[in-house]
Amino acid sequence: MTTVINTIGNEAHKRAPAKGSGPSPAGGQPGGLYKKREPIYPKLVHGKWRTIKWLVLIATLGVYYLLPWFRWDRGPSAPSQAVLVDFTHARFYFFFIQLWPQEVYYFTGLLVVAALAMFLVTALFGRLWCGYACPQTVWTDLFIVAERLFEGDRNARMKLDAAPWSFDKAWRKTGKHAVWLAISLATGGAWIFYFHDAPTLMKQLFVGQAPMTAYASAAILTFTTYSLAGTMREQVCTYMCPWPRIQGAMLDDHSLQVTYRVDRGEPRGAHKKGTGWEGRGDCVDCTQCVVVCPMGIDIRDGSQMECINCGLCIDACDDIMTKVGRPRGLIAFDTDAAVLAREEGRKPDYKFIRPRTLYYGVTLAVVSGIMLYGLLTRSPLALDVIRDRNPTFVRLSDGDIRNGYTLKLMNRSNAPATYRISFSGVDGARLKAVGAPMEGDSIDVALGPDGQRSLQVFVTAPAPQDERHSTPALFKINSPAGEAVKKTVFLSGDEGHGDEER
Amino acid sequence: MSGSRERDEHSGVETTGHEWDGIKELDNPLPRWWLWIFYATIAFSVGYWVLMPAWPGIHGYTHGMLGNSARATVAQDLKDLATQRGAAGAALKTASLQQIEADPKLQSYALSVGQSVFADNCAPCHGQSGTGAKGYPNLRDDVWLWGGKLEDIQHTITVGVRSGDPDQRFSQMPAFGRDGMLQPAQVNDLTEYVTALSHRTADAAAVARAAPVFAQQCAACHGADGKGNQAFGAPNLTDADWLYGADRVSIHDQIWNGHGGVMPAWGHRFDPATIKALAVYIHVKSGGGQ
Ligand code: SF4
Ligand code: SF4
């Protein structure tokens, strides 16, 4: 064993190591090398915030499990699933919106909007996302419901865990894990329905004919749901998730957070019925706020990184306050600034409009506006022009110059359409496309609903007399649904250039 | 290990004894999950040795219980690919060249097959983009020695040029100078004559002297007007396209030595569907041939 020499002084290592850190002082003992997780047995509470949490849980899980089953009629050419990520055909369907791979910037926009919304909400109300809407929180909540069903509430659970193995303990544990697995399986299973026609895939899943990726995805999500929501829980939020760190940067003294109002609660202590409240705070030190906390923290220590702002401790404490006949709200959504103001005998003011919230709000509005404008003015017709780079041009036997272009035409509507392609900008230019009918000076291309085609188009023009090697030109597509124009150039060369090409 | 270790004041953790710029490293234990994953990888690797080919030996290697072989996997993958292509390419077999070109789906499939086959087999001579080089025809323009219609291209690819195939395309430009068929002065005059054919200024006296020689020696293949003949692969001498160079030195050299290229008969190597795809690819990329 190593001898410990403490250079700082003997007091230092006698004090209890900080929570969550360090080995036992003896260091190196078997079993003492690692700090074991302290199990958390959150107690069931009732109250306003718990009710809101139940409602959000039902709403979010309902959306998640049921959304793929919503039908949406898009005609015979497209799938009738309201929300579908169709990898095979590279499409994303969301109710009336249909996105093509070229439009992934909408997803980028969506992510930006989501981030900004999160910034704004956090600046205003703290980590509401974490407490109410985060999948980790929601599923953990659901898993705790199942746990309670088999093992009872906090006290019963603690007793059960401490008890030696018995038949009763075994079946309760087995039952719990079975239900957990079932929920996980349903979660992983629901995920893959977003990527295939749900009713078809459901049948295939049961007869064992679904694609391997479907089974694999379901298995992976089953595993992650089971391990994250079932066994890891608050550790995910505290140790694995980057959001708490990022969200911390959005908060300031005026953000509404779950707050223990020290100005009112201290000094705390047990209270006997019938005695007075003079000279003491309202907190009766019943630790109800601690035992209900799913993160296993004591909010009376002040706001902490672990706190997800779920408000369950508010419900617990409000209950106690009612029982002891004191006003509710010893723990409440409040701001650091307000607590400070009351401590100094000032009247607290709540500032919702601050430079930070203004900035987040305005940016959010601008980005959402741009997204909306883009979606509403989106043309069902799209055209990409790719110039041949090698060779940049070809000199024909009669001395004319020919340029090649690849045109990509997309019909993002549900109706067939004929597109008329024309070219302008170069004198005497003639169009030609192999395999597409010519109509005078233009080419007609018929595209089915939701169809696309890439077309090799050649433009031939007399060699220019002047020195110009690059002439600006335009491709234009006309269709009943509108018109699309793409700029390009026509390249040509002098005699010398022409021969180098060969 | 050193006999004495320092303990950090704040965390109560031992330090490693290392110090960099006054910063000491804490000797925190590995996280439990990390350790378990580490053990799991060790277990995995042992399982891997048992199941998969792993250890080299003197007479070969351990084969593993699964009998896995990268070679066999590749062979199987190639076989699967062939069947896959067979399904997609079935239409290529039955459709005519014109039908392939007119059907957008079939055309784009033929283009992608044609592109990869071209890049692997034709590009060394004709260039990645088919623009050719001196002595190697440009396939992107409208000049064709053996015809630029779909069927012509298909046939040329199948039988090749001077390839030794019984049906080969065959043309032969004599080495008029080297083999002594013409006098050096006559070759000089012919050079002027050919230059004049392609609408360039030339020595009128030489052109007049060469006219009867051209009619006698060259017209049989290149035509009386010099416009060539695709039936014999004889180039058109009146256009702006020169396979062996347009300047007088190159033309002279061509009459003197009579170069002619060789192209393999790809019919021995590709199945008919692949050749069709290649023909469509070349036809489309040349702007529809001639
Ligand atoms: S301290 Fe209160 S608000 Fe924070 S996580 Fe615990 S119960 Fe939720
Ligand atoms: S629940 Fe309220 S009264 Fe009880 S310990 Fe917590 S803060 Fe104090």
How would you describe the overall organization of this protein?
The complex is a heterodimer of chains A (502) and B (290). Chain A has 502 residues and is an alpha+beta fold. Among the domains of chain A are: 42-248, no CATH class; 381-501, Immunoglobulins (Immunoglobulin-like, Sandwich), CATH 2.60.40.10. Helix content of chain A is 40%, strand content 18%. Chain A has 16 helices and 16 strands. Chain A has helices at 48-66, 105-125, 128-133, 135-151, 154-162, 167-192, 198-207, 212-232, 234-240, 243-248, 262-265, 288-291, 312-324, 336-343, 355-376, 495-500; strands at 3-5, 83-86, 91-94, 97-99, 257-260, 331-334, 381-387, 394-395, 401-411, 417-424, 430-433, 438-439, 442-447, 452-461, 470-479, 482-491. In chain A, helix 1 (48-66) packs across helix 4 and helix 4 (135-151) crosses helix 8. The longest helix of chain A is centred in the middle third of the chain and has 26 residues, at 167-192. Chain B is mainly alpha-helical and 290 residues long. Among the domains of chain B are: 72-168 and 263-285, Orthogonal Bundle (Cytochrome Bc1 Complex, Chain D, domain 2), CATH 1.10.760; 184-257, Cytochrome Bc1 Complex, Chain D, domain 2, CATH 1.10.760. Chain B has a two-stranded antiparallel sheet. In chain B, helix 4 (104-126) crosses helix 9 (272-285). Chain B is elongated. Classes of the chains: A alpha+beta (502), B mainly alpha (290). The A-B interface holds A 2-9, 12-13, 15, 17-18, 21-23, 25, 27, 33-34, 388, 390-391, 394-399, 402, 404, 432, 434-435, 453-456, 458, 460, 498-499, 501-502 and B 1-7, 9-14, 28-29, 31-32, 101-104, 107-108, 111, 128-129, 131-134, 138, 140-143, 236, 239-242, 246, 283-285, 287-288. Strand 1 (3-5) of chain A pairs parallel with strand 1 of chain B. One iron/sulfur cluster binds next to helix 13 of chain A. Chain A: Residues 18-27 have a biased composition (Low complexity).
